[in-house]
Write the structure tokens for this entry.
Amino acid sequence: MRTEAGRPGRPGRPRSERAEQAILDATVHAIGDCGVDGVRCEDVAARAGVGKATLYRRWACKEDLLIAAFASLAAPLPQPRGESVREDLIAMAEVLAEGAMDPRYARQFALLHGEGERYPRLLARYKEQVIEPRRELIRSVLRRGVATGELRPDTDVEIAMLALTGAVMARGKGDTTPAAPGFAARVVDALLRGIAAR
Amino acid sequence: MRTEAGRPGRPGRPRSERAEQAILDATVHAIGDCGVDGVRCEDVAARAGVGKATLYRRWACKEDLLIAAFASLAAPLPQPRGESVREDLIAMAEVLAEGAMDPRYARQFALLHGEGERYPRLLARYKEQVIEPRRELIRSVLRRGVATGELRPDTDVEIAMLALTGAVMARGKGDTTPAAPGFAARVVDALLRGIAAR
Amino acid sequence: MRTEAGRPGRPGRPRSERAEQAILDATVHAIGDCGVDGVRCEDVAARAGVGKATLYRRWACKEDLLIAAFASLAAPLPQPRGESVREDLIAMAEVLAEGAMDPRYARQFALLHGEGERYPRLLARYKEQVIEPRRELIRSVLRRGVATGELRPDTDVEIAMLALTGAVMARGKGDTTPAAPGFAARVVDALLRGIAAR
Amino acid sequence: MRTEAGRPGRPGRPRSERAEQAILDATVHAIGDCGVDGVRCEDVAARAGVGKATLYRRWACKEDLLIAAFASLAAPLPQPRGESVREDLIAMAEVLAEGAMDPRYARQFALLHGEGERYPRLLARYKEQVIEPRRELIRSVLRRGVATGELRPDTDVEIAMLALTGAVMARGKGDTTPAAPGFAARVVDALLRGIAAR
DNA sequence: CAATAATCGAGACGGTACGTCGCGTCTTGGG
DNA sequence: CCCAAGACGCGACGTACCGTCTCGATTATTG
């Protein structure tokens, strides 16, 4: 018989999945408490009830640990219901807006915008695995809108996507006040209707 | 003899203006090289040819030094020419887009988005002195557009401002490619016309 | 079928004698290479081609392993031939002198002199099983000399034994040069004749 | 004016002599408490009220620290009074015997005999700075005895020195009982008179 | 012959000390 | 009173070894 995943069972004691998860959880909490690099690996190990070696056996350095911690947060975007482009955009914008206020997710943007050169691989991987999927999902809704005729045929999908996500994420950076109800809808509507007279 | 500012010359050797400027320059370069808190005060002092005490005599901690360094970058926003709302918005968006690509300014956004909890006073001050003036300038142009009838009377100025700045700043975070020419214009136009059919 | 020793065979796989010997050999080599507690159990196990558990199943800790390793070195003292006290003492002194140069045995004295508090049981056992027998053998030769009249009747056996063994072992600690030929004889003769004029 | 030693005063804050001494003291105590390499640098620094960097700024590793700590113990041998070779030898033997019982000095012999390969430079330096001077002092007394006719003209000075020091140091290794009064004298007398009949 | 049980090599586990590095402060001699 | 230089106490970093534990596989005795 094989090990759990059917792979040929390397010799030696297998790595503890409990430890792995405990470390990631402790890291996520620490990020929320102390900020991206206020995290101290010693504390993470201690709070996870784990030796430092167990941590460094899996992730060679702080950066790799942070990559993994963020990856474990993978908040699934809502799947577009597909009835109305407007409604789908609003739903996704709400998720983004909510995430931007959650300190844990707020840290993700910190990564994206701020720690790029300190943790370059973290940035690259985060963009690839988190940012791009979200952007692509929004693009796909926009493209669908063009196809169905809900959106103008000359819509610049990329520009629209940036305006939508940018507006949501730019709001209240550093603010602790939650987004006003209806905020996401107002952004989407402004973008749909345009603001120019006529 | 008086000191530079004409104030009544305290006893003792006056502070060296050379040192002050060298420290700020070194800090700005270090920010560009290593990121907001990849900066190490020891390196800054060494690169400025200055003792650490000379640095800490002026700024009590890293955060204060960073505040001063960013302040010294103060890039003036272009004054709106006032002829066309569209043209004024494009001009300002271009400045924002260019700044977002300059690694030195990019660090400013890092601050805004990422280091808020590590350097709270830096964030607050940066928002107050840099972000808000820019936002207010854009708001004023939008309000003018409503007044002149160039923009719809029911325009949500705040939302429009966020969509504009957000789109420009969200583009290509971490990218090194410069914005395509015409990018700022396309953002402004998308926002003006809206993307909904009809 | 019975196990090797004819005892009533416990259930389960019997312990590998190969492993046991390989561990002891590796330990002795490691002691020679790195010193008494420069030995690292992980290296011993690896060099013996054995898992760490196999080692710790036999010896509960490093100290026990060291005890066993030293015991396996048990170099028998030459039996005194009994013809001449002088010749017997020289023979024994030569063995001591030779042993003092052998790095493996040199480590034994390290134990005696240096690691007593770190490995107290090792020290106690080593003294009991190695040092005392040697000393006692020398004492017995000296006592025989007093009885036969070869040595002065007021000889202080303990003092003479200490002077003899001490001289031999004190020579060239840390030296790599072998004892000059005749060294042991010269020590014994100096002790026999005394150095005072007349 | 110059710094303490008259040397040309390097720039920067001078190293604290207090810290240096506190570290050495803490090390000596730790050696006495825990043994040569039971010493933990972190504890030494803590007990000395000093940061680890301050310790490592002076001594690159544990070994160097131990070298310095032992050097600071430099117990001066009594100067021979020069009246009687026998009395001088006894005086020196008494100092050696006393030192051999002092746990702090006992550690020195541990070094000499046991840790040679783990701390080779420590051993070399210790031999050069502590052992050799002592041996040389004893040799000089012996040579004086030969010259004055107190000792036999064919005395093997080296052998006699080894017998004397070896006997004193071999006694009761690991024992906690103090040397019996008169022990040193008995060793010296045995060596002077010889133990052979006639 | 099957079941049971202790062994094997391998290597992960929780701890703890190591030696390094950066922070913000302090202390020199010399303008 | 300032300057450059650099030592100070502190505390996190990432490494290495201890003695324990957990795998799948092997090798004996026992039912």
Notes: The radius of gyration of chain C is 21 Å. Residues 1, 3, 9-14, 40-43, 52-53, 56, 60-62 of chain C lie near DNA strand F (CB under 10 Å from a C1').
